[in-house]
Amino acid sequence: MSAANPFPDDPEVERELAYAFETIGEDRFRVDPVPSGLLRLYGGMVVSQCLAAARLTVEEGKEAHSLHGYFYKPGQVDLANEFAVTREMDGRSFSNRLVRMSQNGQPLMNLMVSFKTPEPSASHTMTMPDVPPPEALPRVIDLVEDFGPALPERHRPFWQRRQQVEWRPVEPFPFDNREILPATRHFWFRISGPIGDELHVHQRLLAYASDLHIFHTGLGPMALGWANDYLQTASLDHAIWFHQPFRIDEWLLYALDSPAASNALALGRGNVFRRDGTLVATVSQQGLARVLDGKREDKL
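Above: the chain sequence. Below: its structure as tokens.
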């Protein structure tokens, strides 16, 4: 925390404390609050912690290949997170886990995760979009700084804190959009700081990153910006399919599109590519995109 950045968030501290699981019973775990200036728990952290809790109960040699979850309510940053894992199935190749995450007995998320033993097979992959390299693009944190006092106060704790992920948008990054934009966007991203070699660590950090920008892609065609004073947004569900190994501390491309939005809901899809063009993950998420009659002030 400093005069230049008044928020206590620290990426290295967050990576250490967010996965410091305490065992409180059989397949039951607890994580203490992480110092943060956020107004509510970041959804990517919720998915990431649930995935990490599930893996604590799976034998070595199996890695996550898919996850599907529902968010139930916003989490508070000053309360401990508790995880109850159910061993749904264990086979020779696959293991399935159900994770129930809660705070003070109130459910925050249910997440199903499937793990699999790697094996050789035939494969194919779609072509990575042709976009400028990350070195030629601005950083989101610099663009946010350019917004200055125009950025609504309720969004400042998230966007002005020290970020876990470095994002570089290919297209313009308006926060108060009022014109119709295409239902596609692209971002280069990587975790700030070196990460070890364990694939499951890179997977949980990809889960962390994948919650950002995805369903906001569905706002552009409706001429809405993510910081609109009359817009209420929230992640509702989340799914990831892991295809190939990757490193989250090396540049990855998040190619996003939104096939539909209606009923105050927007659907986002994302394909994650290594820089060599290999598709490593696919993500989908539906989010609340509700336009209110009254202006939002202190809440997200």
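The CA atoms of residues 165 and 194 lie 12 Å apart.
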